[in-house]
Amino acid sequence: MSWQAYVDDHLMCEIEGNHLSAAAILGHDGSIWAQSANFPQVKPEEVTGIINDFNEPGTLAPTGLHIGGTKYMVIQGESGVVIRGKKGPGGVTIKKTGMALIIGIYDEPMTPGQCNLIVERLGDYLVDQGF
């Protein structure tokens, strides 16, 4: 299966009538493996900040999590494994695997829990597959 198919079929899937706004799979170096058509242009320093927060949890909290120039307030995650961000009625979930970052961006009516389920389920699967 191509990386694009993981984005199209597993991240942009329907859950209880809702879909993510955008999604992507990136390498730890910031290279884009696959993304939805409307995923924002991620800056290298944004990826560096995300990786640093996975390595040293809490580093993004004072400055916020930035993706494509959009700032999200960092909320509870799973230290070293999942980072979650909130902005107004939407937000973002980022799951780190051994080789990749799985990113899902959502907006109402999708709930944070639905986004978490989609992103973390694919992330857990990829970890099990050695990625």
Automatic annotation (TrEMBL):
> What molecular function terms (GO) are annotated for this protein?
actin monomer binding
Q: Give the domain of life.
A: Eukaryota
- List, alphabetically, the Pfam families matched: Profilin (PF00235)
First-listed, main subcellular location of the protein, grouped into a coarse class: cytoplasm
The keyword Cytoplasm is annotated on this UniProt entry: yes
Q: Name one GO cellular component term.
A: cell cortex
- Localisation per UniProt entry: Cytoplasm, Cytoskeleton
The keyword Electron transport is annotated on this UniProt entry: no
Name the PROSITE patterns on file: PROFILIN
Q: Which UniProt keywords apply?
A: Actin-binding, Cytoplasm, Cytoskeleton
Q: How does it assemble?
A: Occurs in many kinds of cells as a complex with monomeric actin in a 1:1 ratio.
Give a short account of what the protein does.
Binds to actin and affects the structure of the cytoskeleton. At high concentrations, profilin prevents the polymerization of actin, whereas it enhances it at low concentrations.
PANTHER family this protein is in?
Answer: PROFILIN (PTHR11604)
Similarity-based family: Belongs to the profilin family.
Q: What is this protein called?
A: Profilin
Q: What is the lineage of its organism?
A: Eukaryota, Viridiplantae, Streptophyta, Embryophyta, Tracheophyta
